[in-house]
Automatic annotation (TrEMBL):
Family classification: Belongs to the cytochrome P450 family.
Keywords: Endoplasmic reticulum, Heme, Iron, Metal-binding, Microsome, Monooxygenase, Oxidoreductase, Signal
Record-level GO cellular component terms: endoplasmic reticulum membrane
Entry protein name: Cytochrome P450
InterPro entries: Cyt_P450, Cyt_P450_CS, Cyt_P450_E_grp-I, Cyt_P450_sf, Cytochrome_P450_Monoox
CDD domains the record matches: CYP4
Cellular compartment(s): Endoplasmic reticulum membrane; Microsome membrane
Binding site for heme: 413
Location, primary (coarse class): endoplasmic reticulum
């Protein structure tokens, strides 16, 4: 393995034998240590695991917009890094982790399922599931501190179950808790595998209890989607009265017409939507509400926008054009996704020697694109720590590789428009019903880079019913 080209990049402090491994032993370290490295040593740094002379792995960590643009805008470096492989037991060859011609073919097949005409029909789902969330949040009214995360996660799970599979799961009302528990346990094990030497490789993972737990949980998850698909195939559970089709119905339809996806392939894609489409939006919603609590003047303006659109009506019937008209709220969400990007790091892997800016990046290099770092760079965003939605007043394309919460280029998030609509629907509802205030003393989030950005100590605010 030739890694000479990487010598151009600084390494920062590291252990001579273990490299950066001792610095990154937890999901919280990943954010802090990566920030320190890029602040103190340059926008792109080398991360080494193992001895300096013969490293086990050398990666690049970058928050440089040029290198980010080079990687994301080209069509050469499309393969994901090996840590995505922890997802393979659940998602198999789903869109998020597949590559090569297989990925290309599936991306082309799945793209029409995210067409605007399809998404517009989902607004009703966001709204009715959001109404249940409002009822659940009433429990928090008057309490000094409410952790939003568990409430919002169940809400986004209900949304994705109904939109991806066409199945009302009512997890917010305590139904189907076995499926929810399996999603939670599987996500936990996936994160822990990337942090534990014993769980890291399949060769030793089977020695751990989690290997068997994962096996059981995956059976629950796979059986569930499998059964939904089968009953749809036998046409037992398609609601004839709705013109709304879930992603699964669309995939089945495409496949019936042209026989392009097998049942297993459909299941893998539906599982992928389930995974990629609920924790991410929950993170986006929770951090936006946290920012609104901290910035009463921004919240006031967001509420005013709601009043301008719907008067004093707290429960208007919201349509797709209404969500489009929530321009200020969109800026608020964008600014929150800048400071707290729901997906803080993504990884790509070079399959051939690649030249960038006169430097050779060798074949088999992991490149970690540090979205969180890009978004907090003062060269790209003056006063980066400040929450200023007006930054997005005149958002122009030149920011496109400095602001990438949904990634960019051909492997960008296929669910981007869906996610923005869902976040607007849920957040606007909460803003109309509650005044969101910081807790006293103010809750300070402890950021953790799991597959999505989370806060280890929850996302706590105070909710006060609006008159
Ligand atoms: C705020 C919410 C969301 C954020 C911030 C987000 C962010 C991202 C990012 C950064 C990627 C690139 C991942 C990588 O390169 O490794 C991605 C990919 C993807 N996202 Fe999202 N996502 C969100 C919501 C959703 C939703 C709701 C869905 C589905 C309904 C979805 C489905 C996917 C899929 C399938 C991919 C893989 C695309 C491909 O490789 O072709 N995402 N997302």
């Amino acid at each position: 393995q030739k890694n000479d080209g990487l010598n151009k990049f600084p390494e920062g402090p590291s252990h001579p034998l273990l490299g950066h491994l001792p610095l990154m032993t937890s999901t919280t370290d990943v954010i802090d240590v990566s920030m320190q490295l890029i602040r103190n040593h340059g926008k792109t740094v080398k991360i080494r695991i193992g001895p300096k002379i013969l490293p086990m792995r050398t990666s690049l960590l970058t928050a440089d917009s040029h290198l980010t643009e080079f990687i994301l805008s080209g069509n050469k470096i499309l393969k994901k890094t090996e840590n995505y492989q922890f997802l393979k037991h659940w998602l198999r060859k789903g869109l998020l982790i597949s590559d090569g011609d297989y990925w290309k073919r599936h991306r082309k097949i799945l793209t029409p399922a995210f067409h605007l005409e399809v998404l517009k029909e989902f607004v009703q789902v966001f709204e009715s599931v959001g109404d249940v969330l409002i009822e659940k949040l009433r429990r928090c009214e008057g309490t000094p501190s409410c952790d939003l995360h568990p409430f919002v996660t169940l809400c986004t799970l209900d949304v994705i179950c109904e939109t991806a599979m066409g199945t009302k799961m009512n997890v917010q009302s305590g139904k189907n808790s076995h499926y929810v528990q399996s999603v939670k346990k599987t996500c936990r094990i996936i994160i822990e595998r990337s942090m534990s030497t014993l769980k890291l490789t399949d060769t030793t993972f089977w020695l751990c209890r989690d290997f068997y737990t994962l096996k059981n949980e995956l059976k629950v998850l796979h059986d569930f989607t499998h059964n939904v698909i089968n009953s749809k195939k036998n046409n037992k559970s398609i609601d004839k009265n709705t013109k709304r089709l879930a992603f699964l119905d669309l995939l089945l339809k495409f496949s019936q017409d042209e026989n392009i996806l097998s049942t297993d392939e459909i299941r893998e894609e539906v599982d992928t939507f389930m995974f990629a489409g609920h924790d991410t939006t929950a993170s986006g919603i929770c951090f936006t509400l946290y920012c609104l609590a901290d910035h009463p003047e921004v919240q006031k303006q967001a509420l005013q926008e709601q009043k301008d659109l719907f008067g004093d009506e707290k429960n208007p019937v919201i349509t797709y054009p209404d969500l489009q008209n929530m321009k200020y709220l969109e800026q608020v969400i964008k600014e929150s996704c800048r400071l707290y990007p729901p997906v803080p790091i993504i990884g790509r892997y070079t399959t051939e020697d690649t030249e960038f800016d006169g430097c050779l990046i060798p074949k088999y290099t992991n490149i970690m694109l540090f979205i969180y770092g890009l978004h907090r760079d003062p060269d790209y965003f003056p006063e980066p720590e400040k929450f200023k939605p007006e930054r997005f007043d005149n958002f122009d394309g030149s920011l496109s590789y400095t602001y990438i919460p949904f990634s960019a280029g051909s492997r960008s998030c296929i669910g981007q428009k869906f996610a923005m609509l869902e976040m607007k629907s849920i957040i606007s509802k909460i803003v109309r019903h509650f005044e969101i205030k910081p807790t006293s003393p103010r809750h300070e989030v402890k950021l953790s880079a799991e597959t999505v950005l989370k806060s280890l100590n929850g996302i706590k605010v105070t909710l006060k019913k609006r008159p």
